[in-house]
Design a protein that fits this description.
The protein is elongated and about 45 Å long. It is an alpha+beta fold. It contains two helices and four strands, in the order E-H-E-E-E-H. A four-stranded mixed beta sheet has the order 1-2-3-4, covered by helices on one side.
Length: 96
């Protein structure tokens, strides 16, 4: 899985980068299912998280979340991402 993380309007601090890497471990089971994961973080009074996921079988997903707290917004995004990966995985397994 290729991971790309970028920040818009601010610079990610070391602890924020470590938190992102720690949360990415939560979807480590999907390394062989995902080709690209592009995460963009924007700060404008709130933190806006925007992720694009490209799956191995050609499907893609666009997910967003926002929160005033960086960690809470990232957790929301990871919850949605985890659910989406499981749904896509189930769809593919049903077709086999």
């Amino acid at each position: 899985m290729n991971k790309s993380v970028s920040a818009q309007g601010f610079t990610l601090k070391k602890d924020q980068t470590e938190l992102i890497n720690q949360k990415m471990q939560r979807i480590a089971y999907a390394d062989n299912l995902i080709v690209d994961l592009i995460l963009r973080v924007k700060e404008d009074k709130k933190f806006y998280f925007d992720a694009t996921v490209n799956f191995r079988w050609g499907a893609n997903a666009h997910l967003t979340s926002d929160d005033f707290d960086f960690a809470a917004g990232l957790n929301k995004l990871m919850d949605v991402l985890d659910t989406k990966i499981k749904k896509e995985k189930d769809k593919i397994q049903e077709k086999k």
